[in-house]
């Protein structure tokens, strides 16, 4: 029943998309399209929530005579798909709500309105697909519709480059997934997931499939070094689409990885559990360091997505390592941590992008160094952004802390793993994760502090106004969910139970019957965390302190100029900027990882022009991986260029010799 | 239940009451060691009282966050301190959160304080926040690695369980523990803004970190922040005490006598720790800012090494 209903939602979204294509010039088109999207994704959200809370009701598979004639299109909602459908439609509904206000500022609605519902439909379709062809078709549909949205403002500098790079990486990723499914289907060509599941491939083939899935899903999710397109493409799109791409589409990529590796590929080998967490750990640290060095608010958020994807893959990789060693309970814990982080990240990343979008629509600026002091002019946006910043920095009592805490608990279970490589690797990954968590705190102190606090750096920031009520509503709903998932994590962990059970064959103990809503992954003497009590105590002691101060302390307040050690400077230019805030961290980490170099240019004596400080950074993954590839492609193209100008004799010789070579290859093969 | 709650509440009050005393004690000792008479022991209490009686001078550009931050900083630090066993283990709140949560609660306090440093929009506030976050970005992972080491040994991230394990016969002398102790002390020094990382007595210097961040605070707000930093010093001392010197600590439910003995032992431990801190601070010079990363980086590496040794020495 659920699958049919959700397919109906997809059809309705596609119809909205068509209507948007026709009527985008109407004055009410924007409001109508986003209202329709909100209603449809809201309905899909309800269906997905019901499905993930009572997975027993899900067994109907559905096949339609679409797509390849001998295959048809198969759809099914199982526990895993239901969970991800929940994440996607929650993000979609919130983005639509936000866009009800934000979309009014759109200069080129004809380039956004038709593709936004199509993008939502594509993501839903990926999750509903139950055969390889439909999956890949929907995947490509999702990529292309989001590409169209990235190109919505194609005249802005840099956006076409971003779009080109995105298209390239998306096709590359889909190619990898295509090959992965080809290997999974084997020579008999069973492309349905049920058929693939029944005949797991040989060990050597499944290793190749794992690598292909890592490349295919990882390039969409943003694993280092396949992340290069992400921080360019995500911020280029209109903000509600950026939120969808960062908060939600990367989760579809995680779904693709989980579906292939945990569901279709059969039992894992232990070394999978070594490379996946290692890549995840490196991604987390690199992502957050990149984020720290950005001055563009939306790009900072996009890089922070790379970091969070790394954290998710650490959890997934640990689950693989445990599963390969038949430690089902530990695998369940690691997978719970990863999937809970999927949910949490979709909440706070959407929230933060909405905040950035509100700032953008109010000031027209994404550059933090031209903002500042917005907490006075946009108090509600600032409050919501603060909650999101605290949540993404893994601070209790918010939700980000819970999933990182669970990941740490999973790491602490790993000394019992028998393989030596894992024994060495897992603590190192734990250290990387701790480093990433601490750096994320610094990153979001900077993001919030430079943008919203201090004194306005420009007149634009001075004249900012609070954003509209729709956007505020979307942000506050997400902020409330961040707090709720942080103080009542037990319910969210229980809701994940069926997925974990289906993927690992075990699940965490039921959390909701525990005293005072504590969460206890293994046993209380081992570790427990009670978000509700911690929240309650913080509120209690803060109000106790406030009460005591109120009763006994002087209540006098005098406003005056800042003290600033006796040298208050009227110019807001003396404040710390985003570059100066990250300078200490750049000096500590950047000299090695980014070859950061500072260059001071002093004017000659007697010259009154100001001295300049220039920072040179190198992007090593780009320089070491992409530049050589691009060079090789250019080199081959240059050489092959000669083939364009052959004589007719030359072409005939070429065709003939190609035929002979191919026939010989065939002969040797058999 | 009510009795448990009462004991827990007393513990929180003890922590709050002793924290300024510890800070004053270290201050006096340091003064004596360099041949000054120094302030009386009770000076921090008097400072706090004086501060809360004064009016608050608020910068024009300060927002609500600047006024709310001291309460949140104080509350988060105090709750973290309530989770650490001081004179008794297994108190009511001890199982509400583990050591990782304590680290994270301190991170919450630091997050708010760093934001408050940026709020007024002065260059000193910025320098303090930026450096504080740089120090934290190394100190926090080092602390997490110490937590890993301890919890791998004790099989638990709960401080009460770790303390119980450390009192038991299964500990023995371990290289990992020694490394964890050194790393923990280095982190504690950095987190509490003590020499050689930061100088709690400094003002009007470009090298200050913590003091630069709170430069714009005055009156009752400053009192709360000062009290929070006293509590933080006590908290780290208590962690070191209950993990590496767990002797004499009472277990919840043992009755009043045990609690009183535990309290006396705890005060003695604080006195010894304060003496060592004062000796160390007098004997060593402050570092340049960009040497912090070497100092804290070695703490992090010690923590990783300690964990690694345990991972490797574990037999499946």
Name the chain pair with the biggest interface and residue counts per chain: A-B, 91 and 88 residues
Overall radius of gyration of chain B: 19 Å
Question: Which structural category fits the helices and strands of chain B?
Answer: mainly alpha
Task: Count helical runs of chain A.
Answer: 24
* Strand numbers in spatial order across the main sheet of chain B: 2-3
Biggest sheet character of chain B: 2 strands, parallel
The number of domains of chain B: 1
Poorly predicted segments of chain A: none
Architecture blueprint of SSEs:
The complex is a heterodimer of chains A (670) and B (316).
Chain A: H1 2-23, H2 29-53, E1 61-64, E2 73-76, H3 79-102, H4 115-128, H5 132-150, H6 159-185, H7 193-198, H8 203-221, H9 230-236, H10 239-264, H11 272-292, H12 297-324, H13 328-363, H14 374-377, H15 379-392, H16 399-412, H17 420-452, H18 459-462, H19 469-487, H20 489-504, H21 531-552, E3 557-560, H22 578-593, E4 597-601, E5 612-616, H23 620-640, H24 648-669
Antiparallel strand pairs in A: 1-2, 4-5
Helix pairs in contact in A: 1-2, 1-4, 2-3, 3-4, 3-10, 3-13, 3-19, 4-5, 4-10, 5-6, 6-8, 6-9, 8-10, 9-10, 9-12, 10-12, 10-13, 11-12, 11-17, 12-13, 12-16, 12-17, 13-15, 13-16, 13-19, 13-20, 15-17, 15-19, 16-17, 16-19
Chain B: H1 2-33, H2 43-53, E1 56-59, H3 64-83, E2 88-89, H4 99-119, H5 123-154, H6 159-167, H7 175-191, H8 210-213, H9 219-244, E3 250-251, H10 256-283, H11 292-313
Parallel strand pairs in B: 2-3
Helix pairs in contact in B: 1-3, 1-9, 1-10, 2-9, 3-4, 3-9, 4-5, 5-6, 5-7, 5-11, 6-9, 7-9, 7-11, 9-10
């Amino acid at each position: 029943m659920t699958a049919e209903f959700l397919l109906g939602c997809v059809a309705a979204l596609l119809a909205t998309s068509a209507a948007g294509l026709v009527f985008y010039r109407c004055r009410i088109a924007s409001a109508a399209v986003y209202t329709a999207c909100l209603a449809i994704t809201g309905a899909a959200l309800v269906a997905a929530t019901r499905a993930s809370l009572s997975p027993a009701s899900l067994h109907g598979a559905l096949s339609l005579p679409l797509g390849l004639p001998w295959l048809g299109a198969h759809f099914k909602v199982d526990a895993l798909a239901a969970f991800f459908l929940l994440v996607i439609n929650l993000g979609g509904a919130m983005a639509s709500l936000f866009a009800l206000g934000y979309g009014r500022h759109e200069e080129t609605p004809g380039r956004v309105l038709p593709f936004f519902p199509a993008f939502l439909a594509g993501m839903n379709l990926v999750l509903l697909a139950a055969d390889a062809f439909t999956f890949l078709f929907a995947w490509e549909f999702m990529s292309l519709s989001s590409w169209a949205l990235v190109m919505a403002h194609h005249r802005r500098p840099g956006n076409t480059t971003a779009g080109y790079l995105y298209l390239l990486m998306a096709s590359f990723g889909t190619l990898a997934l295509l090959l992965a499914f080809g290997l999974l289907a084997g020579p008999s060509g069973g492309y349905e997931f049920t058929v693939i599941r029944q005949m797991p491939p040989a060990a050597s083939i499944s290793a190749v499939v794992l690598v292909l899935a890592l490349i295919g899903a990882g390039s969409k999710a943003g694993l280092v070094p396949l992340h290069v397109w992400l921080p360019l493409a995500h911020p280029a799109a209109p903000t509600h689409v950026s939120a969808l791409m960062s908060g939600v589409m990367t989760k579809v990529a995680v779904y693709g990885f989980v579906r292939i590796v945990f569901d279709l590929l059969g039992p894992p080998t232990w070394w999978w559990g070594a490379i996946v967490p290692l890549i995840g750990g490196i991604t987390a640290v690199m992502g957050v360091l990149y984020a720290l060095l950005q001055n563009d608010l939306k790009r900072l958020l996009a890089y922070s997505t790379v970091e969070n994807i790394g954290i998710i893959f650490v959890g997934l990789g640990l689950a693989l390592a445990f599963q390969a060693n038949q430690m089902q309970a530990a695998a369940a814990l690691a997978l719970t941590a990863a999937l809970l982080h999927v949910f949490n990240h979709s909440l706070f990343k959407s929230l933060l992008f909405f905040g950035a979008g509100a700032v953008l629509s109010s000031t027209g600026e994404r550059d933090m160094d031209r903002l500042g002091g917005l907490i006075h002019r946009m108090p509600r946006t600032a409050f919501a952004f603060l909650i999101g910043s605290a949540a993404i920095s893994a601070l209790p009592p918010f939700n980000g802390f819970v999933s990182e805490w669970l990941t740490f608990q999973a790491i602490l279970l790993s000394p019992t793993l028998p393989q030596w490589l894992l024994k060495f690797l897992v603590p190192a990954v734990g250290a990387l994760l701790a480093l990433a968590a601490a750096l994320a705190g610094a990153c979001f102190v900077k993001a919030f502090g430079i943008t919203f606090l201090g004194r306005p750096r420009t007149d634009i920031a001075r004249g900012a106004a609070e954003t509209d009520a729709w956007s505020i509503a979307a942000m506050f709903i997400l902020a409330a969910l961040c707090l709720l998932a942080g103080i009542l994590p037990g319910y969210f962990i229980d809701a994940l139970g069926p997925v974990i059970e289906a993927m690992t064959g075990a699940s965490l103990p039921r959390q909701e019957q525990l005293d005072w809503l504590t969460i206890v992954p293994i046993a209380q003497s081992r570790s427990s965390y009670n978000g509700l009590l911690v929240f309650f105590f913080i509120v209690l002691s803060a109000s106790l302190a406030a009460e005591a101060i109120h009763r006994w302390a002087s209540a006098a307040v005098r406003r005056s100029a800042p003290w600033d050690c006796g040298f208050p400077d009227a110019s807001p230019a003396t404040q710390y900027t985003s570059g100066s805030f990250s300078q200490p961290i750049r000096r500590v980490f950047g000299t090695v990882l980014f070859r950061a170099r500072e260059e001071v240019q002093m004017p000659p004596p007697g010259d009154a022009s100001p001295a300049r400080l220039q920072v040179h950074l190198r992007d090593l993954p780009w320089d070491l991986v992409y530049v050589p590839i691009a060079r090789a492609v250019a080199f081959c193209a240059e050489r092959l260029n000669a083939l364009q100008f052959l004589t007719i004799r030359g072409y005939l010789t070429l065709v003939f010799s190609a035929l002979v070579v191919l026939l010989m290859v065939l002969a040797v093969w058999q | 239940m009510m009795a448990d709650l009462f004991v827990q509440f007393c513990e929180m009050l003890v922590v709050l009451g002793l924290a300024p005393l510890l800070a004053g004690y270290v201050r006096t000792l340091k003064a004596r060691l360099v041949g000054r008479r120094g302030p009386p022991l009770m000076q921090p209490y008097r400072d706090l009282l004086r501060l809360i009686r004064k009016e608050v001078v608020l910068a024009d550009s300060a927002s609500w966050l600047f006024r709310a931050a001291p309460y949140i900083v104080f509350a988060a630090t105090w709750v973290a301190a309530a989770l650490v066993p001081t004179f008794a283990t297994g108190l009511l709140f001890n199982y509400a959160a583990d050591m990782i949560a304590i680290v994270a609660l301190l991170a919450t306090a630091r997050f708010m304080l760093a934001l408050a440093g940026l709020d007024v929009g002065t260059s000193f506030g910025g320098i303090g926040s930026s450096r504080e976050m740089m120090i934290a970005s190394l100190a926090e992972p080092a602390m997490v690695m110490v937590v890993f080491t301890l919890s791998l040994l004790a099989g638990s991230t709960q401080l009460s369980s770790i303390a119980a394990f450390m009192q038991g016969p299964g500990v023995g002398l371990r290289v990992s523990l020694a490394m964890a102790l050194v790393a923990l002390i280095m982190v504690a020094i950095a987190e509490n803004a003590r020499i050689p990382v930061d100088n709690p007595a400094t003002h009007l210097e470009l090298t200050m970190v913590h003091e630069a961040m709170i430069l714009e605070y005055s009156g009752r707000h400053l009192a709360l922040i000062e009290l929070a930093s006293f509590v933080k010093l006590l908290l780290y001392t208590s962690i070191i005490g209950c993990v590496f010197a767990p002797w004499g600590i009472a277990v919840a439910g043992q009755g009043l006598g045990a609690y009183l003995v535990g309290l006396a032992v705890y005060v003695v431990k604080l006195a010894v720790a304060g003496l060592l801190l004062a000796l160390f601070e007098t004997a060593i010079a402050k570092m340049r800012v960009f040497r912090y990363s070497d100092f804290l980086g070695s703490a992090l590496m010690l923590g990783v090494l300690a964990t690694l040794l345990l991972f490797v020495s574990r037999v499946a």
